[in-house]
Amino acid sequence: MTVGLQDYDESMKADVKRSDLKPGEVLCQYCTGRCCRYFALPIERPETWDDYDHIRWYMMHGQVSVFVEDTTWYVMVHADCQHLQEDHMCGAYETRPGICRSYTTDDCEYDNDAPYDQLFETAEQMWEYAHAVLPPRPRRQPGDPVSLPVLSG
Ligand code: SF4
Ligand code: SF4
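# iron/sulfur cluster complex -> structure
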């Protein structure tokens, strides 16, 4: 969520804490639009080597992280929304999607760099985690089927 242009004042950008907000002010006025710079989709919790291998493949494409929140796994694609303006305001405020309208500052990432229970930022981290939690990887035989992951609905 960001505030509309009509609410923006460049001079107000500062290192402001939530507790510093004055009546009528909105936290987004002081933010660089952090929540507008990615999207995330829930994925099935990985349970097998193939599952982790697929997630590792997602992450090899770059600009992709995986996080866990309340036991749900998400793939996060880092990409600025096309409507995010240079002043960090929303350029489509009146017609922004419902997910933007319903997002609140209550528990947002404005001042929290680690809002997740777990965060994996590289394919190598994911693979290392797989080695830590899974039993030894079985040797793949030629012709073994590979199942594709399914996004949860
Ligand atoms: S991260 Fe929080 S403060 Fe920043 S734009 Fe999003 S909702 Fe507003
Ligand atoms: S439309 Fe884009 S810039 Fe506007 S609030 Fe939603 S994610 Fe942010």
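# post-check
The longest strand covers residues 72-78.
The chain has one domain: 5-133.
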